[in-house]
Structure of Solo B3/4 domain (OB-fold DNA/RNA-binding) of Phe-aaRS-beta:
Amino acid sequence: MVTISDTIKQHVAHFKIGVITYEQIVVGASPNMLKGKLRQFQELLYFDMEQTPLADWPEVKEWRSVFKQVGTDPSRYRPSSESLLRRIQKQSFIPSIHSAADVNNFFSLYYKLPIGIYDRNNLHGDIVVTIGTEADEYIGINDRTTNFEKKLVTKDAQGAFGSPIVDSKRTMVTDKTTHAIQIVYFLPSFTTTTCEQILQAMKKMFIQIHGGHAYTQLIL
């Protein structure tokens, strides 16, 4: 079961997440179609950022506001979606990793939202999205240890494993993953209809590439 803690609800009105659970998927090298799509979209975003500064993008502004509401300094810690956009701004385009990571990065860029994907075989018990304490930290997929005190963090029975900032090595998806869970950290301003449409679009594309089957949940 995945829930949002009361602590978040007290700090951020209308906070919501989407969850997509995947079963019997096959992760591997990305097809050329996906590689091309990811590269082409990054080039489009680069030109968009030349026209409009990233700090003026509505999604970036709203996420920074959410971070401030939970006690995070958005100039020190950024949503993963903004971090990806900043790389593109420097023309340090995101390379292909594997099919699951590439789809995840594409949708994060397309919707300008932090999205995490996790290997379900490395998750234990119920999952809760909350505001972290000084006890919540992990080694991220960037090989750095991050502490999640006063930051949005996602935890299972073994502790923190995910965040809109960076995800952990413990639960990262690899080419051996067959069961996964994807968490979409939606903007509070998004309507439930918009959120549902995004989840369905993500599920459809992911299954087209990876096979298997999936189901979605919107958690308010």
Notes: The chain has a mean pLDDT of 98.
